[in-house]
Amino acid sequence: MKEILDVQNMTKTFRLSKKQQQLRNSKKTFMTAADNVSFKSYEGEVFGLLGPNGAGKTTTMRMIATLINPDSGDAIVDGFSAVKQPKDVRRKIGFLTNELKLDQYFTPNYLFRFFGELHGMSKEQIESRRKELFSTFGVDKFAEVKVGNLSQGMKQKISLAVSIVHDPSIVIFDEPTNGLDVVTSKIVTDFLVDLKNQGKSIILSSHIFALLEGLCDRVGIIIQGKMVACDTVENLAGDRSLESKFFEIYEETTKEAV
After folding, report:
1. What are phi and psi of 123, to 5 degrees?
2. What domains appear along the chain, each with residue ranges and CATH number?
3. pTM for this entry
4. Whole-angstrom Cα distance, residue 108 to residue 120?
């Protein structure tokens, strides 16, 4: 398979406010969110990032997506450097996070056109893509309804549609099924499988073990900012469940850190 993403020793440290120090019961003024994280991803592959809250998954994804700059390291995205060529990288990727907030006063149609224009797409390209994605996610009937009047599940589907308006070769999803009902979750996971079958590279973060086991070709486990394991689901779990293996690794890693 063609290598499409090469994450090279990416590190990111944040300064902690006094309030954050109090919440963490720590006197440390800095926190290393990602500590020399490295992994590769390939065309037509789903790569999963697994770890507890605050482990560094979202920070890693944001650095790949050029939303924040690493202190050191880089990510080579389909031949382009996230550090040196961020504009080229943004053309290659779609990034969906649960922190994406759609303007409550706009309609799905307006938002889709807006994001399409941001990517330099023609009106014809935008309309063709809109019909395809709105049909896939069942947005058609709600295309002229203000986002603020839609259900959480519908908002998530619209967020997904606008994040891939430009048909990117790499899609990065941070907890894509978080807070969704079972029907909407199924629609989203089925679409991820379809993207994989199209040859897209998918980077997926989730705390749902069954989702990662069912979708991912390989999984990287991040704990306290470090990539502590990275392999196929089968090699990681062996004859056990991914959940069981994760907690074994988690306990071993956190004991060593004490």
Report:
1. -60, -40
2. 3-257 (3.40.50.300)
3. 0.88
4. 18
